[in-house]
């Protein structure tokens, strides 16, 4: 018998959906390995969450440790999202600039988790700088015409809205679900949208490569005009 059946089942669905998306992520996009790592960590965290809501929440000591581990895994997942964003938007050479900021948030949450106060609220506070960097970079990329800019911002917006369903009292009432279940369902939508945004950038990369190959096969205008001139003189 599940202790929190709806929360457990929705977390299980989130984990399975995210896990199925991992091997389908494109490998020809900048930061591909970071995207795969972010999705993998998110999937494992959700699967552990299904066990937590189903059974471990009834065992306070084990449940507390499990929650601390899960919340720390979310922070690690966000590290990979930031890494993928920086590499994809700015390039690998500038990724090192953002790691001190990432380390600051990670250390802050590690201290909170170690002192026995892990929570969604703590994650939001410690990860606010990371999320600000991610959102700011994708806004900048969208303005500059990045193919995934708007799609990424929509996916991030949905994930933030899902978190608010859990944080704001009564926000999940219109869905007739408890806050945890509403949060999980919102995150399923967010992960699917994030996957589509990454795939879109991969499709654009393949298109660019194909266009470059076609361009390389075509003769240059000078070469063509020279041949035409020579043929006309003959």
UniProtKB/TrEMBL annotation:
Residue ranges spanning the membrane: these are 37-58, 64-83, 95-116, 122-141, 153-175, 181-199
RNA-binding among keywords = no
Record keywords: Membrane, Transmembrane, Transmembrane helix
Tree of life domain = Bacteria
* Record-linked Pfam families: DUF6962
Protein's UniProt name: Ceramidase
Highest classification ranks of the organism: Bacteria, Bacillati, Actinomycetota, Actinomycetes, Pseudonocardiales
């Amino acid at each position: 018998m599940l202790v929190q059946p709806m929360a457990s089942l929705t977390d299980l669905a989130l984990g399975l959906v995210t896990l199925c998306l991992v091997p389908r992520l494109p490998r020809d996009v900048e930061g591909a390995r970071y995207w795969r790592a972010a999705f993998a960590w998110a999937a494992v965290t959700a699967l552990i969450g299904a066990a937590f809501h189903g059974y471990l929440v009834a065992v306070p000591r084990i449940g507390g440790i499990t929650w601390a581990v899960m919340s720390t895994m979310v922070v690690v997942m966000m590290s990979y999202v930031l890494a993928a964003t920086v590499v994809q938007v700015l390039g690998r050479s500038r990724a090192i600039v953002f790691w001190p900021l990432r380390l600051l948030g990670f250390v802050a949450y590690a201290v909170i988790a170690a002192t026995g106060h892990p929570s969604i609220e703590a994650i939001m506070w410690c990860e606010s700088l990371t999320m600000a960097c991610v959102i700011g970079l994708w806004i900048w990329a969208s303005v500059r015409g990045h193919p995934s800019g708007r799609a990424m911002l929509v996916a991030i917006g949905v994930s933030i809205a899902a978190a608010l369903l859990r944080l704001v009292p009564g926000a999940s009432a219109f869905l007739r679900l408890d806050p945890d279940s509403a949060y999980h369902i919102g995150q399923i939508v967010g992960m699917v949208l994030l996957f589509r945004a990454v795939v879109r950038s991969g499709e654009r990369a393949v298109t660019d490569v194909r266009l470059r190959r076609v361009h390389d096969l075509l003769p240059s205008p000078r070469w063509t005009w020279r041949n035409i001139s020579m043929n006309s003189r003959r």
